[in-house]
Specification:
Helix content: 25-40%
CATH architecture of the largest domain: 2-Layer Sandwich
Number of strands: 19
Largest sheet: 7 strands, mixed
Radius of gyration: 27 Å
CATH topology of the largest domain: Chloramphenicol Acetyltransferase
Number of domains: 3
Order of helices and strands: EEEEEEEEHHHHHEHHEEEEEEHEEEEH
Strand content: 15-25%
Structural class: alpha+beta
Number of helices: 9
């Protein structure tokens, strides 16, 4: 006996409510094994696959490429053998998460199981979901009326609650209200027109590149960026790592890089200065309980992504090293999951990897600070001893701290980066790992 299984968009991590369908990996009629990928989706910064929970045949696709899908929505229908113990869906299949409730449920339930009505249509300036269209059809709402509904969803989209409220207050509205156009982000314009000749090459920005560009501009427009710089002597760390790294690799099967050492120092400093571990929400400050460190990682295409080490202050150096190496490997292999880049409370970026001695990084919203680690350099330096000052060769690096001057003043921003440097310079050369 055959039955049907609804493949839904799974929960993908904190604050992720929707994803864009980027490609179908299976076609209608294809066989699908359990845990086999059926489609690819994209959130703000990470691409991932949606696997099947069952073995069966793909019989229906409910979304097209570039459609936006909400978490919990049914994406596809898979026909399976009833003996697998999976019950058939108890509700009609549609692109909606749930039908409207209360007085509209009876009138909308029937249209939900059919194709979307054509009485109202989306346009370039206004997008209407299948559920909104069904409610409009059930309530005989015209295109002109629907175009006047104020949307509270993303990019001004009309939600279920918006249209239900419209129906409730319909009799109180003016006869010929003006239609509303959704405000969409406009393409950036150049002050000076770009001239082209036959030898120039036009390169289309990737989807991730466009998102990064948007986030960077948005961050600069949101936060008042200021920087504090400090130089740290990391000679003790350099020599200690050189001494223990081979034994560490043999014992743990992992390379011991400088990154987990620096992240440990940042986590300690954040515990000392919890007002750097915050976010700004309008006129409110959200003080984060957990210290979740984002670490910027370079991808093969030149873009950056920021996977997050959760509860970094609770990890010892071995645990931190394993977490750093795991996230870095999966970032380079494009195997990060949406949850891997969610929930960061402070970010560290290693600009020294590319030879830079310092940088002024842009804050990763909605955080309020980001630390850039410069290249470690062998330099002549004054060494203070009880017998006097001497010139010696030391390993040094610059720490560049960008922070949000709306809520972080110069004293706090400077004290924090000084604390990070102090932890690095006070490294125990006899530390066991």
């Amino acid at each position: 006996m055959k039955t049907k299984f609804e493949l839904k968009l799974p929960k993908m991590g904190e604050s992720v409510a929707e994803a864009t369908l980027t490609s179908w990996l299976k076609e209608v009629g294809d066989s699908i094994e359990e845990d086999e990928a059926v489609l690819e989706i994209a959130t703000d910064k990470v691409d991932s696959e949606v696997p099947s929970e069952v073995t069966g045949i793909l019989v229906e696709k409910l979304f097209e490429i570039d459609d936006v899908i909400q978490v919990g929505q049914t994406i596809a229908i898979i026909e399976i053998e009833a003996t697998e113990g999976v019950e058939a869906p108890s509700v009609p299949v549609s692109k909606t998460v749930e039908p409207p409730t209360d007085e509209l449920i009876a009138s909308v339930e029937a249209p939900l199981s059919e194709s979307v009505p054509t009485s109202v249509q989306s346009s370039e300036n206004r997008f209407y979901s299948p559920l909104v269209k069904n409610i409009a059809a059930a309530e005989n709402i015209t295109q002109q009326e629907l175009d006047t509904v104020v949307g509270s969803g993303k990019d001004g989209r009309v939600t279920k609650n918006d249209i239900l409220k419209f129906v409730e207050n319909r009799s109180l509205l003016p006869v010929n209200p003006e239609p509303i156009k959704t405000t969409k982000p406009t393409k950036s314009t150049n002050a000076v027109p770009v001239s082209l000749n036959g030898e120039d090459e036009i390169i289309e920005m990737s989807r991730m590149g466009k998102l990064i560009a948007h986030h960077m501009v948005e961050s600069v427009q949101t936060s008042a960026h200021v920087q504090s710089f400090i130089e740290a002597d990391v000679t003790k760390i350099w020599n200690w790592r050189k001494k223990v790294k081979d034994d560490f690799t043999k014992r743990e099967g992992e390379n011991l890089t400088f990154t987990p050492i620096f992240l440990e120092a940042v986590a300690k400093a954040l515990k000392d200065f919890p007002m750097l571990n915050i976010s700004v929400d309008g006129d409110k400050i959200i003080k984060r309980k957990n210290i979740n460190l984002g670490m910027a990682a370079a991808l093969a295409d030149g873009n950056l992504i920021v996977p997050v080490i959760k509860n970094a202050d609770q990890l010892n150096l071995v645990g931190m090293s394993k977490a750093v190496n795991d996230l870095a490997r999966r970032a380079r292999a494009s195997q990060l999951k949406p949850d891997d880049i969610q929930g960061g409370t402070y970010t560290v970026t290693n600009v020294g990897t590319f030879g830079s001695i310092m940088g002024t990084p842009i804050i990763n919203q909605p955080q309020v600070g980001i630390l850039a680690l410069g290249a470690i350099r062998k330099v002549p330096a004054v060494i203070e001893t009880s017998e006097g000052d001497f010139i010696g060769i030391r390993y040094k690096m610059f720490l560049s701290h960008s922070y949000d001057h709306r809520v972080i003043n110069g004293a706090l921003g400077g004290q924090f980066v000084k604390a990070v440097a102090d932890y690095l310079e006070a490294w125990d050369s006899n530390r066991e790992i």
